[in-house]
Amino acid sequence: MKRTIDIPDDWTPEQALAVCELFHDITSAIWDAYTEPLAQPCQREAMPDAVQELEQLYDTSRDGAGAGAGADADDIPF
Question: What residues contact residue 70 under an 8 Å CB cut-off, 6+ apart?
């Protein structure tokens, strides 16, 4: 795996751990503050084909009839 940023190669294990803990704390704070806005893009990235299929199946913008328009309960893919 190619690194996208350069990091020093002379850190002590303690320094490396401190940086990892810092990133963990930053990531946790971001998720706490932005859970809702981040959840949908992350889901799209993890399962793009399934999300796209569901969006097409339940697209409300086509006819304005609401979620599930044009799909029977038997057509639910799960």
Answer: 57, 62, 63
Which helix (DSSP H) or strand (DSSP E) does residue 58 occupy? none
Stretch 26-45: mean pLDDT: 81
With b for 16 or more beta-carbon neighbours within 10 A and e for fewer, the 40-69 pattern comes to eeeeeeeeeeeeeeeeeeeeeeeeeeeeee
Q: What is the dihedral of CA 16, 19, 21, 26, to 10 degrees?
A: -160
Using a 10 angstrom Cβ sphere, with 0-12 exposed, 13-18 middle and 19 or more buried, the burial of residue 71 is: middle
At residue 12 the predicted structure's pLDDT band, cuts being 50, 70 and 90, is: very high
The SS3 assignment for 44 reads helix
